[in-house]
Amino acid sequence: MIFVKVGAVILITAVIVAAFLTPPPLTAMASGGDASRLFYFHVPMAQVSFLSFMVAAAFAIAYLRTRAAAHDRVAATSAELGMIFSVVAMITGSLWAKQAWGAYWNWDPRQLFLFALVLFYGAFFALRQATVNVEARRRLSAVYLIFGGAISPLLFFVLPRLYRSLHEDANQVVTAAATKPTMSAQVAVVFVTSTIGFLLLYLWLLQLGTAAARIHEEIGMREAKS
Asked: What is the value of pTM for the model shown?
């Protein structure tokens, strides 16, 4: 785990420095100019949030198969991290949108579907907190997160592509970084480094959150017995 902690700190710090010292990935004013440096944070965090929801769904399935409390804790913690990364991705996206498109909120399909996903997982935590019985809460959470894992690919990738989006310039950068690294080596290096850095940060926070949830459950059980 020390490798994950040190790696996350080093890589994210390096990306912050590189984002300000290198030219912006999109130079046209219509793309936000200097604000397009947020690309190095906005896109990786959105990607990690999607991964978080998929991990939550996988451990929810594992819980239903094994009834192991540890799987429930990992699933809930991963969903929580996914929602946090989604909110931060929305904030950085809004700051970029203000410079590129003139408003923080533009009713763009990607904005709308990401917001819908945040509301979906926000409702999950409200439902989880409202369910008093532990076993019922775990079963309900597992079913909810599996459903979330099913709709997340639709909201992230499928539905936004069915409508005209203002994200076309950013999409071009992502495509160039992913398929033609020689066309934009500098952007690709910073982008991939950022993605790995935030992935390591997710793993670190997942370990911390799961441990905290286990301690919280143990304290609750002791209080219930006393």
From this structure: 0.87
Q: Which two tokens stand for residue 114?
A: 């990401």
Question: One-letter amino acid identity for 181?
Answer: P
- What's the CA gap between 130 and 121, in Å, rounded? 14
Taking only the tens place, the pLDDT of each residue in 17-50 is: 998 898 888 765 556 678 888 989 999 999 999 9
d(CA 43, CA 194): 9
Indicate the helix (H) or strand (E) that contains 184.
Answer: none
Which of 46, 42, 2 lies closest to 19 in space, CA to CA?
42
Residue recorded with tokens 């310039």: 169
Helix axes 39-66, 109-130, angle to 10 degrees: 40
User: What tokens does 219 get?
Assistant: 């304290």
Give percent helix, percent strand, percent coil of the chain, each to the nearest 5.
85, 0, 15
Q: Identity (one letter) of the amino acid at 186?
A: Q
Rounded Cα gap, residues 27 and 31, in angstroms: 7
pLDDT tens-place string over residues 44-91: 999 999 999 999 999 999 999 999 999 999 999 999 999 999 999 999
Q: How far apart are CA 25 and CA 151, in angstroms?
A: 31
Does residue 102 sit in helix, strand or coil? coil
